[in-house]
Specification:
mainly alpha
């Protein structure tokens, strides 16, 4: 699960950075505000790469997905990209857990079928 979720988060990192560049063109937003919010979101993406397998990591990922969709009120394209990344996040969590379960089953089978060498 970690690999799939981290890949999604790294993609979001870049999308948030590019959205920050687009948001800078809005005359109602100050550059410092745009980069403070974008920087925090980008930092959270990187932080979540390490926390995704810890308790609450997936929930924090979902909170980030909601924030990404909500950023569409500033940069309208983010509505579409946010939904796409939320779908990718769901797929990463869902299929990542299935892969982890399959790996655990395979490891258990290979441990039980290997005769003891003692």
């Amino acid at each position: 699960m970690r690999t799939l979720c981290s890949s999604t988060l790294i993609g979001e990192f870049f999308v948030i950075g590019f959205a920050g560049l687009v948001a800078m063109k809005d005359p109602d937003l100050s550059t410092s505000t745009v980069w403070t919010v974008s920087g925090i979101a980008m930092f959270l993406c990187l932080l979540l790469c390490g926390l995704v397998t810890r308790p609450g990591g997936v929930a924090l990922g979902w909170a980030l997905q909601i924030a990404l969709i909500a950023s569409g009120f500033i940069v309208s394209t983010m509505f579409i990209l946010g939904v796409i990344f939320a779908a990718l996040w769901w797929a990463s969590v869902h299929y990542g857990r299935k892969v982890d379960e399959a790996k655990a089953r395979f490891a258990a089978q290979s441990d039980s079928s290997t005769p003891d060498a003692a």
